[in-house]
Amino acid sequence: MRRLSIFRNTLQMLSPLTRPKAPLLPQASSHVVFRCYAAPPKRFYKHTGVLYCDGQYEITLDQRKLKTPKGTVFRVKSEPLALAVALEWDSQKERILQTDMHLSSLCNTALDNPNHIVKFDAVQQILSFLETDTILYQSADDDNPNAQALYDMQVCEWNPIINWFNERFGVDLQPTRDIGSPHVSDESKAAIQRHLLSYNDWAIHGFCFAVDTLKSIILTLACVERLITVEQAVLLSRLEEEYQSGYWGRVEWAHDLNQQQMQGRVAAAVLFIHLNSSSVAVRRKDTT
Asked: Residues of the signal sequence (predicted)?
């Protein structure tokens, strides 16, 4: 109530009818800006389901078929993916928070492809992160004891991942302590490009989402290859922030919320990649 009264008094002072008379002097104009956000839609369904139709799976909300933002019927080829999307919709409470439904968003992007991006172009966008990969840039301030401790932690935590990446994909990436970007040879880029092109179009959308969240191709592939968990990948990408938070203190709820949101996005992306890169077949046993 106190805030409302203060806001009301402010508006009265700005109003020309209630403003006290004063000498006409040049004054700066004042503006009050109101910004209205659309409320999340209410949940309009009670039950979710999965239908099998023509070799694909559809999501139902009561008796309605789920559709993409462009109006296309929501269809996926993977039954586990359809079940996961149905669970996302079933987990919504009174309001539908679509910003937290990462699997549904990834499927909508793959189905509608609003930017009309082909797989080769998407792979090139992913490769553009290679020279700016988070774990290739390490602290360079040797005179600062705090920075030296951070560098030692980066060497301990990041270098084993980089060494695994070089051995796994036959490349030679080296971390840098300079302000310039590390050198990445054309052969290294070609090796990573061949590996990414081996995935289908849908899985590449998952890679784009994970790399954009972690700002690291190396951590994304390490997570997809099951070398590290999603939680470890997020902590490694936030290593400097976590170190500084431990040194200076954490902002209540803000750091934890950011970490949980990153984990949710990366987990959805990795699951999306795996579910679109494997096939599942169910056959009934012949009792005769």
From this structure: none
